[in-house]
Amino acid sequence: MLLPLTYGGQGIRFDTLLPAHCERYRIAHTTLNAAQAPGLTILMQTSQLPHSQITLTHLLANEPVELPFQASKQCAVMLFALKGKLEFRLDQGPDVHLQHVHYNLFRMDRSSGHLLLPRGKHILLTIAFDRHYLPQYTANFPSLQAFQETSFPGWQPLYARHRTIALDMQRTIGSLRHCAFEGAARDYFLEAKVVELLMMALYETPENAAPRQLMVLKKRDQEMLASARNLLLENMDEHISTLELARRIGMNDFKLKRGFKQLFGTTIFEFVTVARMEEAKRLLRETDLPIKRIAAGAGYKNMSNFIAAFKRRNGIPPGDFKRKSYQMAMGA
């Protein structure tokens, strides 16, 4: 097992039974470990591959929590903060602060510390690689050589600053989380997606990254852009133009479009499209709503357009996706 982080502390005991209120987070064909403690529910689901291990961790905090953790093995780990804010306070070495929709690749030595969680839902995706996996890529990505050899207390990051999870990465992560294959086909598919994520991360290293002129975004600007993002998520059934969105948050449309892409790694149009599709997939998996009503909730007035768009992004029509999800849930 390559499990990079284990969580413990007084009153925390893991079991393979999923708490009833977490049932909707279950992923078929994964190893499940769940625990409950005062003010906190932990749900860890893992998929073991030949050279890596994928772990999706849901941390549901009803109050601010300080959770002890250990990294018991030396390995390279990609950490993706898919939701919430994660603050790792290491007993040795600098603390690691991972904000919502950010990631980094770390070389982890054996370490321990505390994970500080504010109240709310936090989702962490980790992909751990065995020690012999990354060296095969050093010829193409020289930064990996220094990354693996530099002596650094605690966790050695590939990037000095954490990177935004861009749209292409979000799509690949979505494929990992909602893989519909079984058996060997599932393993091959997940391995391919892990390599895809790794290549995306390595290609963005300084020697490969193209120079780009960044807009200065003050704290107030970032708050306004976050407000725009929330407005879009809360009104997915409504077609809000860029001008209207800019008016609602009090920012000019040029700064909104450019700042949104810089902060969240995607255009407003692509963000809304992906968010609508992810919500449609959730409703197809978790509810008995008619597909026509789900299409309308995703902002599609024309049923045929919804079916075509869904199939284009997910490979199968929504009806087949719903049947497949039901079959997987029954077999879980």
Automatic annotation (TrEMBL):
The keyword DNA-binding applies. Residues 226-324 form the HTH araC/xylS-type domain. GO terms for molecular function: DNA-binding transcription factor activity; sequence-specific DNA binding. SUPFAM superfamilies: Homeodomain-like. Keywords: DNA-binding, Transcription, Transcription regulation. The lineage of its organism: Bacteria, Pseudomonadati, Bacteroidota, Chitinophagia, Chitinophagales. It comes from Chitinophaga parva. This is HTH araC/xylS-type domain-containing protein. Pfam families: HTH_18. Gene3D superfamilies: Homeodomain-like.
